[in-house]
Design goal:
Number of domains of chain B: 2
CATH architecture of the largest domain in chain B: Sandwich
Largest interface: A-B, 81 and 74 residues
Distance between the termini of chain A: 10 Å
Strand order of the largest sheet of chain B: 3-9-8-5-6
Oligomer: heterodimer
CATH architecture of chain A: Up-down Bundle
CATH class of chain A: Mainly Alpha
CATH class of the largest domain in chain B: Mainly Beta
Structural class of chain B: alpha+beta
Helix content of chain B: 25-40%
Distance between the termini of chain B: 22 Å
Order of helices and strands of chain B: HHEEEEEEEEE
CATH topology of chain A: Cytochrome C Oxidase, Chain A
Number of strands of chain B: 9
Shape of chain B: elongated
Number of helices of chain A: 16
Strand content of chain A: under 5%
Strand content of chain B: 25-35%
Helix content of chain A: over 70%
CATH topology of the largest domain in chain B: Immunoglobulin-like
Radius of gyration of chain A: 22 Å
Largest sheet of chain A: none
């Protein structure tokens, strides 16, 4: 085996490990999600303390897994264009696992149940539900995870700047202003990675700031800070970090659909303009989480609404439209990877709709913090980012050693699709009938959709287990030494 | 009412998008040259993008007229009833809980400890208004009750283990 192939194998080993951790975390997170729906649906009983611990672990695991998978996708494809540090990728994975253990210990051993979207000063003021140690385990765990991701994005920024000259050039600004020809524009994977590097560095700095202030407040309650500032920092972090997973995940769609259809998906000027718009909008729209705080500056709330609408444009006009165009009459050979990539674009696009609807202040006034919110994000995260994740897994399995897909996988595809539409649809229905989110108990009239969502969730967890089993099969074949048919790898080697 | 409009609007657009994805997936079996497709659909995109921008501007202008914090819920010369609301883990201190139909009310909402959400539900358990209850700040919510009945206040921001038990009642005669 050539030196290059050994290097590529070691790179792929890291990515594969990261994807396994992701797959297992998603399954565990989903099981907690289903249990919560069963409790809300009155089908099983759980103490409120247990319910809110499950809520905390479900949210933390799912956002963590989505971020871990999405960074693996970004890292894998970006590494074909720029020189990334494997050491940093490894450090991030180790820190993620340490963080996951700390969060789990804080939640289940010390009963921390503040949710991943906790608002200051909840970690310190739990009404005696959890103590300092539980809060510190959780908060420091999240900080450790944040540090890992921050290192990763500092590295991607460094690598992009080294190759292209600046982050602006990574976004293709020199092409936009006409200094450079369209044909020399950075590829979509680089443009998306640059955007995510910018927004996620900002998000992680906001998140770390608010985490550190909360940690000090938990240790010494005499240290206080402004709750409105804390809320702004929390949502700036949460919104950007969650959304960035989609912008990383979509790289697999760009790469795969172009390869499967044998059609080019290049960075046109319009494409670059819209990615720059996405960069700014993603940074600026978080105030739509604060629409029910009339003490916020009015202009920020109006900006939150209007830019949320505008933020739908890049996906609706460029990315989803591009995916449809490249697939249309292409004679594409559908398999699990291409199917899931295509499905992810559907999930993202339809998930954007209820999000946009809810970002109108007048609608938010009666739908904020109802189950409408998890309704839309289960669509664009569950049917979007998670589909991108498993598309990437099937791609790796096929591309790396040609592992065959079976009827079971195909059946799982439809179970997953209909299951997640069911879960999201049940949440949206709950939101439309004013069911509050994050409630340990439901009134009888709220229980029906929760029961339906739980059953649909069971379908999804079965489907995802089948996806993960396929990936584990790939690893076992791979460990026998049959690796390295990757198109890029061959090209590089 | 708003909830139903939001649900139906979302459903229509989501079904429309799903239909487009389905048609394209069906059409993907055919194989044609890409160049003419790009040419034709780039043109269509300009039109489609322009429609979306017009839609965004139109909907923004329409909905921003209705911002709940701006609404004058009472006519000139009429004094609203000011009600102070203080949330705490796990309950509500509300200075006044009985109102008359047509009486303009301003709730001044704050919190003693952590963040809470002040959500007003009507007798059909449908949210009719809400705001956040935050320590150190006072958010205002304006409302004029149109119907007599018993309204419930629920906490709409996760605040701890008895979050779902933070219930209070308002009576409108």
């Amino acid at each position: 085996m050539s030196e290059m192939m050994v290097r590529l194998k070691s790179r792929n080993n890291l990515i594969v490990t990261q994807m396994v951790v992701t797959g297992l975390t998603v399954i565990v997170g989903m099981i907690f999600g289903i249990i919560m729906l069963l409790v809300q649906g009155g089908m099983i009983e759980a103490m409120p303390a247990t319910f809110y611990q499950f809520l905390t672990i479900h949210g933390t695991f799912m956002i963590g897994a989505a971020a871990l998978a999405a960074t693996a996708i970004m890292w894998y494809f970006l590494s074909h264009y720029v020189e990334l540090s494997k050491k940093i990728l490894k450090i991030n994975l180790v820190l993620f696992i340490i963080a996951a253990v700390m969060v789990t210990v804080g939640t289940f051993s010390f009963e921390y149940a503040g949710a991943w979207t906790f608002l200051y000063p909840l970690p310190a003021l739990s009404a005696s539900a959890w103590g300092t140690i539980g809060a510190l385990f959780y908060l420091i765990g999240m900080l450790v995870m944040g540090v890992g991701f921050l290192l990763l994005f500092i590295d991607s920024g460094r690598a992009i700047i080294k190759k292209y000259g600046s982050l602006g050039k990574g976004l293709g600004w020199d092409v936009i202003i006409g200094k450079k020809a369209e044909k020399d524009a950075p590829p979509p994977a680089v443009v998306a990675s640059t955007m995510v590097t910018i927004v996620n560095t900002t998000a992680l700095l906001s998140g770390s700031t608010v985490l550190i202030m909360n940690i000090i407040n938990v240790i010494n309650p005499a240290f206080t800070f402004n709750p409105l500032l804390a809320k702004n920092l929390t949502y700036a972090f949460g919104h950007i970090f969650a959304n960035a997973t989609i912008y990383m995940g979509v790289i697999v769609v760009y790469e795969l659909l172009a390869r499967y259809t044998k059609r080019p998906w290049n960075s046109s000027r319009v494409f670059l303009v819209f990615w720059t718009m996405s960069t700014f909008f993603t940074l600026l729209v978080y105030p739509h989480h604060l629409l029910m705080d009339s003490v916020m500056p009015r202009w920020m709330l109006i900006m939150g609404q209007v830019l949320s609408y505008a933020n739908g444009l890049p996906v609706l006009v460029v990315t989803a439209y591009g995916a449809l165009m490249i697939v249309y009459k292409s004679g594409i050979k559908w398999d699990m990877a291409s199917g899931l990539a295509y499905l992810s674009m559907l999930g993202w696009t339809i998930g954007v709709i209820p999000a946009i609807v809810d970002s109108a202040i007048v609608v938010n006034h009666v739908m904020h913090n109802t189950k409408w919110v998890p309704g839309h994000f289960h669509m664009y995260m569950g049917l979007g980012v998670i589909a991108m994740t498993f598309s990437f897994m099937y791609f790796l399995a096929k591309n790396d050693n040609g592992l065959k897909e079976t009827m079971v996988d195909k059946t799982a595809f439809f179970m997953y699709m209909f299951g997640l539409i069911g879960v999201s649809g049940s949440f949206l229905t709950s939101g439309a009938i004013s069911t509050p989110r994050r409630f340990a108990t439901h009134l009888p009239e709220w229980m029906g959709p929760a029961q339906f969502g739980a059953v649909a969730g069971i379908l999804v967890v079965i489907a995802i287990t089948i996806f993960v089993i396929h990936f584990i099969r790939y690893i076992s074949v791979r460990n026998k030494g049959n690796i390295g048919s990757d198109y890029y790898d061959k090209k590089l080697a | 009412m708003v909830q139903m409009v939001a649900w139906i609007t979302s459903l229509v657009f989501m079904l429309l998008i799903a239909a487009v994805f389905l048609v394209v997936a069906i059409k993907s079996k055919e194989k044609r040259e890409y160049e003419p497709i790009v040419k034709k659909w780039y043109k269509a995109r300009t039109f489609y993008g322009a429609i979306l921008v017009i839609l965004i501007i139109g909907v923004s202008l329409y909905t921003l007229r209705l911002i709940p914090f701006n609404q004058p819920v009472y006519s000139e010369g009429e004094e609203p009833t000011i009600v102070d609301v203080e949330a705490f883990q796990f309950g509500w201190n509300i200075t006044e809980t009985e109102f008359k139909v047509g009486e303009p009310v301003e709730f001044h909402v704050t919190s003693q400890d952590v963040n809470h959400g002040f959500g007003i539900y009507d007798e059909d358990m449908e949210i009719i208004a809400q705001t956040q209850a935050m320590p150190d700040y006072t958010n205002k919510v304006y409302i004029t009750f149109d119907e007599p009945g018993t309204y419930e206040i629920l906490c709409l921001e996760y605040c701890g283990l008895a979050h779902h038990q933070m219930v209070a009642e308002l009576v409108v005669k």
